[in-house]
Amino acid sequence: MRVLVLTPYLPHAKVGHGGGTAVRDLVRHLARDHEVLLVALVRPGEENLVDEVKELGVAIVMDDFGTGYSSLSYLWRFPFDKIKIDRSFMQAFENSDDNVESILETIVSLGHSLKMRVTAEGVETPEQAAFMEKVSCDQIQGFLYGRPMTETDIAVSILENISKAAARDTATATDPKDGTRKTKAS
Length: 186
Hints:
Layout: E1 2-8, H1 19-33, E2 36-42, H2 47-55, E3 58-65, H3 73-77, E4 82-85, H4 88-94, H5 100-113, E5 117-120, H6 126-134, E6 139-140, H7 151-171, E7 172-174, E8 181-183
Parallel strand pairs: 1-2, 1-3, 3-4, 4-5, 5-6
Antiparallel strand pairs: 7-8
């Protein structure tokens, strides 16, 4: 599935000549030709652009929800499939800021009540992950699960994990009579 990560219009952002037409043409081109469209700026009066892109089969995601320009009003103005909770909430959680747990739980509940999936960004500790799982957050991402990697590093990591799994499988076997796992030495 292709994904559009929507960043609400930033008044100070300069997209270039042509205004909304340039943005619309760019989004149509990227949504048609690429598996992942990272960012689209949505200007006032350009809301129908999101509907047009969604008709192309692209999932619409509100990024950095809860901060800056990601207003609650966007939730009823656009057909989002997912909201991504800004990482600043995880930082506040780590600092035990008052009310952050209630706010996170409310964001997840709000997203679900609007039939949206919810992703928590910036999860770096097992405690953060456990809390987000407890409040039924759909997806969790952050350094707890991995750091950004190059394509080569990803391939090496996958091969290392396959090699480790194969070594474990070679060292143990399942007894067909009782289904117990035994090491080759036993």
